[in-house]
Amino acid sequence: MLGKRVGDYLYFHVDSLPHFDEEFRKHCQAAATLVGITLGIHAHVIRIEANSKSSVALLAYPDFFDDPFPALQESWLIDLEAGTVRHRSYVQSDNPPILHRKELLLPPDHPRRAEFAALTQMAEAIGLFDDPKRIGYRKQWLALIEAKDYRIQGHTLVPVGNCEQEDDAGTKESSELHLSTAAWQTQRHRTALVRYGFSAPIQSLARHGFLDGTWTLLDYGCGRGDDVRGLRENGIEAWGWDPYYAPDEPLQPADIINLGFVINVIENIDERAETLRRAFSLAQRLLVVSVMLADQNTGGQPFRDGILTARGTFQKYYTQREIRDFIEQVLGESPIPVAPGVLYIFRDQDAEQRFLVNRYRRQSLALRQPSPLLRKPPSKRSRQERKYLEYQDPLDRLWERWCQLGRKPHPDEVTDLDVLRKGFGSLGRALGFLARYRDLEEIEKARHARIEDLTVYFALSQFEGRKPYRHLEPTLKRDIKAFFGSHTAALEAGKTLLFQIADSELILKACRQAAGQGLGWLEENRYLQLHTSLVERLPPILRVYVGCAAALYGDVTHADLVKIHIQSGKLTLMRFDDFEGKALPRMIERIKIKLRDQDIDFFTYGDAYPAPFLYHKSRYINEAFPHYPEQVAFEGHLDSLGLFDFSGYGPPPDRFLQVLEENRWQIEGFHLKRSATIPPLDAPCGRYLTFRDLIECGETWRQTRIDNRPKQPESYNALHDLAIHVLDPLIDYFGMIRLTFGFCSPALARKIPGRIDRKRDQHAAWERNRLGNLICPRLGAAVDFVVEDESMLEVAKWIVANTPFDRLYFYGDDRPIHVSYGPEHSRRVIWMRCTAFGKILPQRVSSLESLG
After folding, report:
1. Fewer C-beta neighbours within 10 Å, C or N terminus of the chain?
2. CB neighbours of 259 closer than 8 A, spacing ≥ 6?
3. Are 397 and 525 in the same domain?
4. Distance CA 317, CA 302 (A)
5. CATH number at residue 792
6. DSSP letters of 560-603?
7. What pLDDT score was predicted for residue 613?
8. 615 and 581 in contact (C-beta within 8 Å)?
9. Lowest-confidence pick of 380-384, 580-584, 774-778
């Protein structure tokens, strides 16, 4: 299928449009025409919704082909039927959404599709997609890549490994090294890094479940021992040996031998092979080999089959194929690549087979990262760059001051004036030097922002009562001269802006602009609601609006949310309990400030007035706010349950919690999880039944009255899901059903005469046997039932057509139906056909129509 499907949405690049039919292309072009943009120039990706023919989103990724994970710059959400457009700009965002799996958006014959697919395979191999909640935004994505001990290089991911680390002393020292063996052989130890976190091979072991504490580990060539320390902190028996840093540590067998970035620093190929053989001889179960890849080659002097770096160290850069061939040639074993530059060689063949079967099923073992040590990144500097580095701190402070002011600073506004004059002759020359290495567009943006800030200042100063000019500080005086020309002009600009807050049309326009930049949520042109930390980024007119309210109330940042009422001249502040740390914070105070009346009303929530939940918190923050990705994921999950109507203020808190509990869900942090409690038997299970109905039913139970209650909370969840998704709709349509068989505990199963297939029929739900193993690996839950005075064939047809069942067994038009609901959602229909000899033969059928 063309495009990338995410939930109910399909994404594709505009280059894929020719592969769609003409009607669909006209549909997309109509959306672009309504917005007034050009596909391929302003918008590069199109998103359509499966359940809405009129909804189209046009997304701007100007760096789609150049950036391996391009950032979203603008989006337009268009409703063609209503003729409406919602625009959002991420140009000023510190943490914009990013795009993954680009190849899926392109047509199959696109020349760069294979290149992008290779990047996706690398990302999958090192586990970057294991937790989808962490990957949608740039900051979290880059932090994740760094935590995995990888870095982005072009359209590839390469392990940090032992990348060269250069400092001033190292540069000087390396320049004195010679190419003789004696001069550089002793420098191998200098490739060992002080790591921020675990190395790529150790992280791969954790991700594939080998670091659960049952296996020992020897880090062969451990360098400074950061991985070993971190593993020990996580309760793993590990030790390390290194010829330079830990020569006296035991070099003895272990379950896992980690040969991490070792053989690529050995200049002698025979010694390299011998090291590999020795490491493998010590591995009782698994040898992990990791090397530097050819993509990481940063240059150097050719030496033997590698290079001699600027620091006097040897590096052999491999391709993935080269390292595989080398290992196979030396060890006679076929290595298994698990990530770029990381390969597994198993000595334990049983473990190898288990790994191959389960490699994509395993869950990562979370590791606590060892404390990092500071390190300087490598660089090669020109003479001017070295001078910049020499004066980096004062130059950076000068640039920061320049950006703060939006104009060239005066000498008495510079803290490092003497140092800069010594280095550059004068402040003007220092500024000129900076201008050659910095983007002056930042200064222009700073100038514009400073003018807006000052205009807001002068507007509010007049609202509060301005000070005479003679009391203004020298910096402000210089600002006035630079940006306005005179104090009178500055005051006039402020007064004009102040009077504009009475114009509701201008307020509405500014609110739309703010919402389009991700600064809050605009509700039906009635109000803009946002977190108070975003107020300073609002358009000037709204900052004045809020500032006037603050002049009456005080610092608005005391609250969490601010609501700007567009028509009424009011502003509402809201405080919540732990707004940042909760997915659903509860309001504890609301303050309504009436600007026209110069009055304030306070409302406190508690015993008399139950504190309401704040639903859809993500609307009022933006992608730079803590826990934003988790918040969005939580809300998406909550919405997908379809249990609540969140229009207006949403459900009352007591009702919300009640419905959540009835449906076997609970909130833990920023996650919705299934309930882990055992409910009363008479608690509702869906709209029409109780748990008792599904547990105490059937002929055998009525005869024995045995305690048939499930012991696992998951079994109750499964029974509830069966009721909600299958039985409730069925009862809505046909009326009440009669259950002939429901949940079956091991105790009840032993009382049932005849043969039952407990491993397949799903009547055992999530229960376990005496060994702790699942009785039915299919999970889910199942019931048998009849609908009185109805054709069971017609009932079965209705279930197949209208419910998301898992398996349905049809025994005959006048016999009970077996139906289940479970995680497989296989939608299998089995005709339990009775032979002439009375034997039942299961036969899978594609359609129940054939039985009619």
Report:
1. N
2. 220, 221, 275, 276, 279, 287, 288, 289, 290
3. no
4. 11
5. 3.30.1380.10
6. SEEEEETTT-EEEEEEETTTTT-SS-BEEEEEEEETTTTEEEEE
7. 95
8. no
9. 380-384
